[in-house]
Amino acid sequence: MAGVKIEQLSKYYTIHNEQIKALAEIDLTIPDGSFVTLVGKSGCGKTTLLRLLCGLEQPSRGQITFLDQQQQVVQGKGRVSIVFQEPRLMPWLTVEQNMALPLFKEKDRRRVNQTVTHFLALLGLKKFRDAYPAQISGGMAQRVALGRTLCYDPDVILMDEPLGALDAFTRKNLQAELVDIFQTQKKTIVFVTHDVDEAVFLGQRVVILEGGKILEDVAVALSYPRNPLQQEFFQIREKILTVVMGEKPTKIGGYSQ
Ligand SMILES: Nc1ncnc2c1ncn2[C@@H]1O[C@H](COP(=O)(O)OP(=O)(O)OP(=O)(O)O)[C@@H](O)[C@H]1O
């Protein structure tokens, strides 16, 4: 298990001699076993932050430290895994083989089989064990991608709009499954979404980014599973929308936000 401490993190890109500040001096602590969602307008730096967290990019400035449960620094990089918007499965491998990919170095094949079987059951994929990616639906494929990540058993799971390409019903089901997985697996999750409802449904905190900076860090003190029709849910959602849209607070449900 691990949490993440981000200090004064900046990432600059240069395009045609013009410097773009994708992230500017971000400070953020994500405790071990917590679920943080990141929202913000397109281009605000959400994906850049995930790419830095999983080491696909190097910071221009600042640092990222992984901390264990005792708040001690984890040497090197923590075990981090990322789930993208599209499942990125190997088309020539079955569902089972795709999920087992991160365990290719494991010599004990019985253990591999047990682990994969466990997550196939957890994600409702047992019947599709021997299917190829072309033979399953988009929602199932995204479950396989999540299963592959869970087989790797990372400390920190990063998710970059993993449900963005799915229809509304599949998306709702997978949101509920994610909450279950978070509660049972106790992973640290950082989840990027454009959907404020999804952010409030899932996250214990919703971090709002704008122009590479943190605009606000909103606590979602609601127990799981959450009901989007509940007044408190609605209030938090409206507060976030107000911050993202840069509008003055509106009167909602009879009282000001
Ligand atoms: N490899 C790159 N080279 C140059 N500029 C980049 C690169 N990656 C990102 N950027 C720039 O950094 C800024 C932040 O991009 P990023 O992809 O992190 O935004 P985002 O919030 O994830 O956007 P979206 O919601 O549209 O996916 C943007 O201005 C983008 O153009």
From TrEMBL:
Pfam families: ABC_tran
Classification via InterPro entries: AAA+_ATPase, ABC_transporter-like_ATP-bd, ABC_transporter-like_CS, ABC_transporter_ATP-bind, P-loop_NTPase
Any GO molecular function: ATP binding
Extent of the signal sequence: none
SUPFAM superfamilies to which the protein is assigned, alphabetical: P-loop containing nucleoside triphosphate hydrolases
Keywords carried by this UniProt record: ATP-binding, Nucleotide-binding, Transport
CDD domains attached to this UniProt entry: ABC_NrtD_SsuB_transporters
Record bears the keyword Transport: yes
Keyword Nucleus tagged: no
Source organism, top-level taxon: Bacteria
Limits of the ABC transporter domain: 4-236
Name used for this protein in its record: Sulfonate transport system ATP-binding protein
Organism: Desulforamulus aeronauticus DSM 10349
